[in-house]
Design brief:
With 217 residues, the protein is α+β, with helices and mostly antiparallel strands. The chain folds into two domains: 101 residues, Phosphorylase Kinase, domain 1, CATH 3.30.200; 105 residues, Transferase(Phosphotransferase), domain 1 (Orthogonal Bundle), CATH 1.10.510. It contains six helices and ten strands, in the order αβββββαβββααββαα. The longest helix is centred in the C-terminal third of the chain and has 20 residues. The radius of gyration is 18 Å and the shape is globular. It comes from Brunnivagina elsteri CCALA 953. This is Serine/threonine protein kinase. One of its GO terms (molecular function) is protein serine/threonine kinase activity.
Amino acid sequence: MKFSLEKLTESVFQQLLPELQLKSIHPHDPVVVGNIPEPWELLGAGNYAAVLCHQDYPDYVVKIYAPNRPGFEEEVEVYRRLGSHPAYSECFFAEDGILILKRLCGVTLYDCIHRGLRIPKKVIQDIDKALEYARDRNLYPHDIHGRNVMMYQGRGLVVDISDFLDRGKCRKWDNLKTAYYYFYRPILSPIKLPIPYFLLNGVRKLYRMLTSWKKWF
């Protein structure tokens, strides 16, 4: 593992970074990624950073923050506090806006509902325990929703920990659990009905609208 990590780090600095183009044009839009050298692949892009992988190192991902975007130091601190836990990724390298992390495999709960995949109760319980573990380490689980948690082999995983230093109240996970136990389990789960993305996105927008209105009352 140490040898693989050293070789991957070498490839990041000698092969990936000299060729990669990474721009954050607007803070509310995903970063723009271009000119990715083979055999590197883009896994995803957020507002501040992009996540890439290399086929020769399937157990790792590389997260690279765009220039002048915030969050790197905070994310490093969150991983430091989390240490090693089966429901979370783990940080093996952090320097100059670059993180090398343990790769998590699975399907987001959002995509499980889209595909009609059954979400066992154990997945929800695993995520609950993982969030409590984070609280025990003076972290504040925040922004936990269907796209930030995954299911893999019937177990729950937490994907995005970038806001775990945010002390503000966030009820997204509690609301998702309420929907899971009172709507998903008794109605959707037995029939395994795939839900189109346009309906899921409509529900997501309605949820945002309702929570926004609630702040004013």
